Amino acid sequence: MACANCGRQYIVPEPKLFSFNSPLGACPECEGFGNVIDIDLDLVVPDRNKSLRDGAIAPWNTPAYRHELEELLALAADYKLPVDVPFRDLTEEQLRLIRHGVPERKFGGLNGFIRWLERRKYKMHLRVFLSRWRSYRPCPACRGARLRPEALATRVGGVNIAEWLAMKVGQARQFVGKLELTEWEQSVGRMMLDEIGSRLGYLETVGLDYLTLDRTLRTLSGGEAQRVALTGALGSSLVNLLYVLDEPSVGLHPRDIDRLMVAIRSLRDRGNTVVVVEHEEAILRGADQIVEVGPGAGEQGGRIVFQGTPAEMLEDPRSLTGDYLTGRRGLSAAPRRRVPEHGWIRLAGARGNNLKNITVEFPLGVLCVVTGVSGAGKSTLVQDTLYPALYRRMHKEGPFPLACDDVFGDGQIDDCVLVDQSPIGRSPRSNPVTYLKAFDEIRSVFAETIEARTNNYTAGHFSFNVDGGRCTRCEGDGHIQIDMQFLADVYMRCPQCDGTRYRPEILEIKYRGRSIADVLDLTVREAFSFFRGRPKVQARLKRLIDVGLDYLRLGQPANTLSGGEAQRLKLAAYISSHRRGLTLFLLDEPTTGLHFSDVVQLLDCFDALLAVGHSLIVVEHNLQVMRAADYVIDLGPGAAEDGGRLGTCGTPEEVARDQQSITGQFLAEALRACVVEEVED
């Protein structure tokens, strides 16, 4: 693998050569990332209307680095650099001087300043400071292909691996199917081509034929990422296996559920066993056998309420799920719609990702639901464009919005809050009562007891986060971490406090016969009854009951909560904070992991927020939520390049009448069920 004329040597081809995750195949310039980090002039100069003298260059406005700006101003006259004109009016030659400096005057410019910081980035505060002014751009060596030149030189069917990965799923499958191979090549690649075709075929089956193979996962919608994650299992040809799927319908539009069911049934038909943890109605109705666990949550659950076919579930009076499937519960008449008469937020020219330069108006004071098929651009519109645009208009530091012209109407709200499913805390020390500030009131209750006052114990002694009353061995963790060197760390229950987190003398202080450790082991509903006569504690706990989290234990570590539980916990915190002014709440699929009865409780929580003047914009596929909405914004008509357009906007009934809307077709059926139920009553 060498050229005799020029002496150039080539690496012997092997699978790692074509992987950007391997040092052997990764581009040496960007190390396989496809982009390199460099100084971003948009971050360095956030306001181009400012002049150099007024502090257009943000890093040099700090007292520590003000001397850099003074050096630039001192030599500006000698190099005809205007310092009192807007930065945007400077010429390329003048910008080059600012960037590269003047070596003969010992002024390094922005590049020299950044290099000076990089030489000292072993200091944490300088690393943080440096990261504020840099962003990523495509690698100039591989142009985003991620691979070294030797890997890109290998071609199959006239294209290299980067060009093939740039194809859409449907195009890539057709390309593989039309490859003209010799008999020997076909015998070598038969199994590989079959596996590739099978996995690409699954992506087509579930409606992801529009995705390119090299698209990064962070740019996918929730439903798209869920279906891609299932590809490895559902796209294989294995038999006699047990597959366990945990809520595979998360993030999927009702239209995409049918496609998912096709893939799941194909697994079953090949002789596999498929166990699905799910709440989605279409999957429940398509199951061969249903096992319902209940009847409630937490301490009220853990029992087998029903097992049998879907038809048998509909006839079983003990099944709560069966009640919702038959319409005995949940299918009340269409609610009275709130009229959008409290103003509007207008987002103009949204064109991030697949949005097609759309202008959308969001009503205030009502429950506004943004819907559309998976990948239509809902999260891009609300979470990545509207929220950052409003946040920055309120003069708060936050992420930059995706491309848009402007946002109008922000003066009608006092605050904007994004309630997503990110964890509320990664430490076991954080739990529901500490997040809701209810633990402060609980500790005060214990500090008021006669025993506590006799021993001069304050509320701080009943905290496991500070010295005083916590166990000195585990420092309030309840467990001791053992470093296993090259293996994963092992946690063992603290032998001194036996996992209670507190010193023995603190545990001797009882309120109504329970210690502080006993109280933390109560569920929310049990604690609500236990603290009768304590309105401050009960008011905090009542919010958790309102959002359906009454089964959580007060001391349950935050890192054990699911995404849906974390989102509802945040919502409870906002409700209990008694915020003044009008707040716009943005929620991304809050019904994730919720049963039909939980969705009813969530809608009651929404009503409580709207009743005091707040506004709600919810990205959602759930038909229960869409049916209860006051205003629906439908994006589509399809996904990716076929989406990003504004469809019908209005009440659920108006969207349901649109024959071109995929969402409208499913919504019409849900609304007809309500009408039938009302007529029967």
Could you describe the 3D structure shown?
This protein has about 675 residues and is α/β, with parallel strands linked by helices. It has four domains: about 35-140, Orthogonal Bundle (Helicase, Ruva Protein, domain 3); about 165-270, 3-Layer(aba) Sandwich (Rossmann fold), CATH 3.40.50; about 345-425 and about 560-680, P-loop containing nucleotide triphosphate hydrolases (Rossmann fold); about 430-525, ABC transporter ATPase like fold (Up-down Bundle), CATH 1.20.1580. It contains 28 helices and 17 strands. A six-stranded mixed sheet has the order 11-14-15-9-16-17, with helices on both faces. The protein has a three-stranded antiparallel sheet with strand order 8-7-10, with helices on one face. A two-stranded antiparallel sheet has the order 1-2. Helix 23 crosses helix 24 (about 565-575). The mean pLDDT is about 90.
List keywords for this structure.
globular, 3-stranded antiparallel beta sheet, alpha/beta, 4 domains, Rossmann fold, 681 residues, 17 strands, 6-stranded mixed beta sheet
List the helices and strands and how they pair.
Blueprint: E1 35-39, H1 41-44, H2 66-76, H3 92-100, H4 109-118, H5 124-131, E2 134-138, H6 149-152, H7 161-165, H8 169-177, H9 183-205, H10 222-229, H11 231-234, E3 242-246, H12 254-269, E4 273-277, H13 281-285, E5 290-294, E6 303-308, H14 310-315, H15 320-326, E7 344-350, E8 358-363, E9 367-372, H16 378-393, E10 406-408, E11 415-419, H17 432-435, H18 438-447, H19 450-454, E12 479-482, E13 490-493, H20 504-507, H21 516-520, H22 524-530, H23 535-546, H24 563-576, E14 583-588, H25 596-611, E15 615-619, H26 623-628, E16 631-636, E17 645-650, H27 652-656, H28 662-680
Parallel strand pairs: 3-4, 9-15, 9-16, 11-14, 14-15
Antiparallel strand pairs: 1-2, 5-6, 7-8, 7-10, 12-13, 16-17
Helix pairs in contact: 3-4, 8-9, 18-23, 22-23, 23-24
